[in-house]
Amino acid sequence: MFNPTILTFELVSKSLLSTYKIHIYLPPQFDAKLSYPLMLLNDGQDLEAMDMKTILTDIYKHQLSKPFILAGIEAQNRLQTYGVAGCLDFKGRGSLATEYTDFVIKDVLPSILKVCGLTKFSERVIGGFSLGGLSAFDMAWVQPETFSKVMVCSGAFWWRKKELNEGYTDADRIMHNKVLETPHKPPLKIWLQCGTLDEKEDRNLNGIIDSIDDMRDLVKTLQEKGFKENVDLFSKEMIGGKHSLETYGIVFPYFVHWAFN
Q1: pTM of the model as a whole
Q2: What is 69-102 written as a DSSP string?
């Protein structure tokens, strides 16, 4: 009664020279005559390992969210397709981020509508984990007319222009700079999460792991842009949370309750 229906299809990207598998989880009692919100996730190859079907079944069983469509895009060449569009990191990674963004918006979204037999979504939300989370944030940031909300767990906000031993400072973080340099606050709602056991690195030796430092600094930067905590910005430091699918599976229901309740 509460189980989602799973569909899978393939989509060829000529610009990325890859074939992508896309997994769709339709809500119980799905009706193509209705309009549903879409939750689009990077790293769709991880959904089965997360046991997303059980997670969604529990969400619907306990009425944590209104019905929504979840779609996961399996990654191809993620070190090049994920990143910040238009700005390579210090190792030249993220070279296909612009092409990937175009592929998602121009090809993936219309194809999901077609496969589901829908004419439109009531809203479109995007999310991801780690580097896939950085990619999701970048897409939502530059395309707020496409995506109304974004979820990032363990976001790779360390993505930087310089290596640590090459004169790096926090001013070299690419996404922080992109937010700072954006002239106007986009109409976007942002949900960020990081665990206290996400990693062990502490580049500035302040006793706080880098991933949490980077998320905290991004929150401050967003607040300078006019975002307000618990209004259009939510950030959570999960005690004991790790850089793992297990942690992301735990926090995902909290996000969809926030996004679609």
Answers
A1: 0.97
A2: EEEEEPPSSHHHHSSBTTB--TTS--TTHHHHHH
